[in-house]
Structures are given as structure tokens and as C-alpha cells.
Amino acid sequence: MQIKKLIAAIALVAASSAVNAATPVKLALTTWIGYSPFYVAAGMDMYKKQGIEVTLQTFADPAMLPSAVASKSVDGALMTFDQVIGAAAQGQVFKVVMPIDYSNGGDAVLADMSIKKIKDLKGKKVAYAPLSPSDFLISYALKINGMSDKDISPVNMTPEAIPSAMASKAVPAGATYEPNVSQILAMEGGKKFHVIYSSKEAPGLIADVLVFDEAHIKSNGKEITAVIKAYLEGLDYMKSHPKEASEIIGKAIGVSGKEVLEQLQGVYNIPRKEMASPFKQGKNTKSYFVSGEVINEILMKSGQIKKPVSIATTIDDSFIKAVLK
């Protein structure tokens, strides 16, 4: 009788442990200051409070993110909206479930001091990663200056390799994002390179989003909601404890807390009260419908997509509506 009770007790504990076990969620991302609330949520065990165990898998090349989601080697990804549209054009059904941020100077085209403006890039080597936010930024900068990638000599290079390439004079210019931007600007006391165009001049154009594919959304709604809740808690902590949060973020991306606070000036993390806005029709590029049409135009002109993607098919605001309700 005692043995039966013991077995029953063990079974009850095992069942309880199974129910309470954290659900694993793997998210792909690149190193980017705008993803700071995710790092804070990890450092403060905020995911566990929501019943999930999140792994942030860092990729050196942003172009690898869509294929990582499509191949199901990860559950979801943090990527830019132009990547979502590019993937949709290839038949991959990704959905934006949460706005994260938009670059506000954290993405930039940098050049040596002999190059003063975008038009001066004509005939020059410019390093950037194809199918990345940097590709989109340089394409947009060239477009509004009456140019295209045919007017420059593109050099295929990962974002992290650009600072050393520019330092060695292998290329006179490059398009990249933080923390690489700050690294390049700091070279030789800030006298060697400067920004000739940045995302600050087109707020909302380079937007970072949380993405899952359609099939995953249908069967994993609770986990996605948990990710969003933990992210929001991380965002709140950054606002209430900026110094403590900066140390956590710095440890995650390999810079000091002071550098984190400086780099955060180049990004705008969407606050709770504004999270529903990007999903709506709007009049400026802070709306996915407006920025999406600009992205469609640039990607079509560059030959990266053959026809425009319907923006409505790339977004799902149901999770944000439910969490913010």
C-alpha cells in the first residue's frame, strides 16, 4: 500500500513538472541595439515567468534569417520589414506579429572624408551585405539622389567585416548598422570617417519586426503571446532602470553599458501606446503600408522581386491587440 502511494506521488510530481516545464522557443537575430528588450528579458529571466525558454540564436549575415525561419531551424526571427517582403515575394508566408523598433540613425552609409555626399559615391567601391537592411538603406539613398547600384561598385561584405575593410582602405565607403557604425566613427579620434546618409533621414523606413511563419502561428499562439509579454516587460525595465538594463544589454552584445546608452540614441523602440499604429494605414513611413510600398518599389527596381507584395498579407496584429487590450 505504501509502495503504491509512493509511486502515485512520484507520478504526480512528474506530471506536475511536465505541465510546468518551460516551452522552448528559438529566435534568430543579428546583433542590433534595437533588440535590447529581448536581451533584457533573457538576462532578467522574464521569459521563464511567461512559461517559455527562449534561445536567441545570433547570425552574422542578416540574409540568412528568412531561410532559417523557412527551414524551421528556428521558430521565428527578428528581422527588418523589407526582409519580410522579400521573403513573401519568394513564396514564404511570414507574418509580422509585433513591431520592435525603427532605425533612427543606427543604420548608416559611412565614407572617408573625401566623400561628402551620396552622389560622390559614383564609381566608388561601397561595401554592404546583399539582402540586408544596409542593402535597402543604400538603395533608398541612391534612389532619392537619382542614382542606382549601377552607379557604384558594390562589394559583398558582412556587416561585421566592414569596419576593418574601411580601416585598411580596402573600400572607401560602406553601409552598416550599430555597433559597427560607432566603431567606424571612432577610428583615429573620429577624424577618418563620417556619416553621409542615415536612417534618421527616413524614420520608419528600416523597421525591425518579430516574425513567425503562418503555420507556426496557427499552432503556437500561446508561446508567441508569451514572447511578446516578456519583451514588453523587458522594454519597461529599460525605461525604469536604464543603467542596470544597459549593463545586461552590453554583456549580450559585447560593448560597455555606456556604449549601449549611446547606441540606443540611434533607434526608436516602439512604446506600448504606439504598437498598434504601424499595422494601420498611414501617411508616413512609420506605417507598414506606406513603408511597404516604398520597399516594393525599390526591390522591384533592383530586380530582387518580380511583382509587388500585398502588405496586408505580411502582418498579423491579433497578438498585439490581445496583449494590449
Short descriptors:
single chain, 325 residues, alpha/beta, D-Maltodextrin-Binding Protein, domain 2, 2 domains, five-stranded mixed β-sheet, globular
CATH topology of the largest domain: D-Maltodextrin-Binding Protein, domain 2
Structural class: alpha/beta
The percent range for helix content is 40-55%
CATH class of the largest domain: Alpha Beta
Number of strands: 11
N-to-C order of helices and strands: HEHHEHEHEEEHEHEHEEHHHHEHH
Explain what the structure shows.
The protein is α/β, with parallel strands linked by helices. It has 2 domains: 200 residues, Periplasmic binding protein-like II (D-Maltodextrin-Binding Protein, domain 2); 95 residues, D-Maltodextrin-Binding Protein, domain 2. Helices cover 42% and strands 20% of the residues. It has 14 helices and 11 strands. It has a 6-stranded mixed beta sheet. Strands 7-6-8-5-9 form a 5-stranded mixed beta sheet. The longest helix has 20 residues. It is globular, with a radius of gyration of 21 Å. The chain starts with a helix and ends with a helix.
